Amino acid sequence: MTTADQQTWTSVDKYFDTALIGPDPVIAEVERAGEKAGLPAISVSKAQGKLLYLLIRGARAQRILEVGTLGGHSAVWMARAIQPPGRIVTFELDPRHAEVARAAVDQAGVGDLVDIRVGPAAEGLAALADEQPEPFDFVFIDADKASNATYLDYAVRLGRPGTVIVVDNVVRDGRVLEGADEGSEGVRRLVDMLADRTDVEAVAVQTVGERGYDGFLLAVVSDSVA
Ligand SMILES: C[S@@+](CC[C@H](N)C(=O)[O-])C[C@H]1O[C@@H](n2cnc3c(N)ncnc32)[C@H](O)[C@@H]1O
Ligand SMILES: [Mg+2]
Q: PANTHER family from the entry (predicted)?
């Protein structure tokens, strides 16, 4: 058995990105702006951003919900996948991150499609639920991992049968097995909750790449949900 290392994973990402994504000045600018503002390098990779884009295109999703905006990297990918009157509502705790994201989505030409709500997402989601909005078609959960179960619960409530939910960073370099840190413990609580629920089907997929060894959880709201 050969065991590839981080350098190989990064080179393989580069190989596929060059062939299948190509130069993307808009995304390059979003990344540059985030770096310049000193944001942590914890956004989706280019390949993961395009995966979100393709999932949204494939599902013909129009109403998108995101938890955890950071500098707007994933939001730009997702906004580019939807057609008007589609829209993204995205929650961000840190006002400085939200400010960088606002500039990024405006500069990317998708600002009209992106509603950035600043504050703790759990409170924001409760307020959004009170607004009784049209159901969301696609949800990307990528914020404080300790609250994953809460966010998943809102995603189902704010969705409809067939709503696709992606939860990012569920493997955490394998730390999910121990659940010893807050994030891994949050992932395990989410998985325990999903194991008991019949209103949503889920699977987790491990990944490697320029962002290291991690993975995502994909869930779909069941047809039986009223
Ligand atoms: C991994 S980053 C998001 C990356 C982004 N989705 C991307 O891929 O471009 C997580 C973000 O969640 C935010 N966050 C952390 N706790 C939060 C909370 N309770 N409510 C809303 N956002 C939160 C952090 O400030 C950070 O910007
Ligand atoms: Mg992430």
A: CAFFEOYL-COA O-METHYLTRANSFERASE 3-RELATED, O-METHYLTRANSFERASE-RELATED
Per-residue pLDDT reduced to its tens digit, 154-198? 999 999 999 999 999 999 999 999 988 999 999 999 999 999 999
Which of 32, 142, 207 to probe ligand 1 with, by most ligand atoms within 8 A of CB? Answer: 142
Which residues surround ligand 1 with Cβ inside 6 Å? 42-44, 68, 70, 73-74, 91-94, 97, 120-121, 142-144
Q: Enumerate the domain spans of the chain.
A: 6-221
Measured at the CA of 126, the angle between CA 166 and CA 72, to 5 degrees, comes to 45
- The token pair that represents 65 in the structure block: 């919900």
Find the 169 Cα to ligand 2 centroid distance in Å: 5
Cα distance between residue 82 and residue 208, in whole Å: 27
Q: What is the ipTM of this complex?
A: 0.99
> What CATH number has the domain spanning 6-221?
3.40.50.150
Mean pLDDT score, 1-30: 94
The reported pLDDT for the residue numbered 4 is: 86
Å from CA of 214 to ligand 2 middle: 9
d(CA 183, CA 16): 30
Ligand 2 centroid, distance to 170 Cα (angstroms): 9
| Ligand of minimum distance to the alpha carbon of 68 | 1
Residues of the chain with pLDDT > 70: what percent? 98
Q: Which of 99, 47, 110, 113 is nearest to 70 (CA)?
A: 99
